[in-house]
Amino acid sequence: MGDAAATDAPARVDGPGLAHGTRVLLTLAAAVIVFAGIWFARDILAPAAVAAVVVIIAHPVRHPLERRGWPSWLATTAVIVVAYLILAALGTLLVVASAQFIAMLPDYADELAATVHAVSDWLASLGLSSDAASSAASAVDPEALLSIAAGVADAVLGTATAFFFVLAYVIFMAADASRLGRDGRVFGTAAAEAIGTRYFSGVRRYYVVNATFGLIVAVLDGLLLWAIGVPIPIVWAILAFVTNFIPNIGFVIGVIPPAVLALVVGGWPLALVVVLAYSVINVVLQVLVQPKFVSDAVGLSLALTFFSVVFWTLVIGPIGAILCIPLTLLVRALLLEPDPRAGALRRLSGDPQAVA
Hints:
Elements: H1 2-8, H2 20-40, H3 42-58, H4 62-67, H5 72-104, H6 109-125, H7 130-137, H8 142-182, H9 190-228, H10 233-243, H11 250-298, H12 302-316, H13 319-335, H14 343-349
Membrane topology: Multi-pass membrane protein
Subcellular location: Membrane
Protein name: AI-2E family transporter
């Protein structure tokens, strides 16, 4: 009887410990400090995050080469070359789009000014005050768009500066990945290896699928804009491709500039055609088809996906909108997946691997 009672008794806890609410508050306070530190170091960490994602995508190139007998250093060089080709392609797209956008604005300055006055008069006819109408119409003000163009040029120059660090990070990360691969287990335990493998493969599938559908969307949108006479369709096609990597709100960002330009050159009917055609193309591909391919790789809830776009943009800048999914998956892989007590949080995040 005494042994049974001892067995059934709850385990003794040494010390009072911290209340659950206190632990939650301490965790949140630590998270605020960590992310504030990331914000202060964003100019260093954002290029490192870009390089890490590119290396993750390019790393599988080495496996078939090593199976064919290539030496490790040569396989690593191939990974670096593929990573550089990816970066060069993206850089070329950004430079071409920025140059054409900046060169286009002076040619349509008169049309832009006329559109500003027309939109202001129309809003005033609806009952808005003249100040409110002028403020709303300023979205297509030539001076505002020229300042946007100057900002785009500055952003391209800033990106070119950060690009040097990305290139250097790629070399070191690819070399480290090769060394860790030769050591066998990278993360130490079988459970950690499973988490790491799932994370890396998920990031690769996510970007491959997004790049594939982004290319399809870009080609269709570009051909549409070219057919209906919207200027510089290649710029808006590149924008559609890039914004395809921004979950949930990428479509809205991608449709606004060509719709505004269509309004300037062709009036409301042409702008409406652009919006409707974009909606059909992007909704069918990005809302109905693409999620079926991405869901297994990502496993994030819609609410968390939208929040991650806003959060990581705030933390590390505009590039955070494109890197938000792998960064959110990384946080979950580091903090939630190794903890068996975090099953509820993993389920709330949309993790299909979470167990009850």
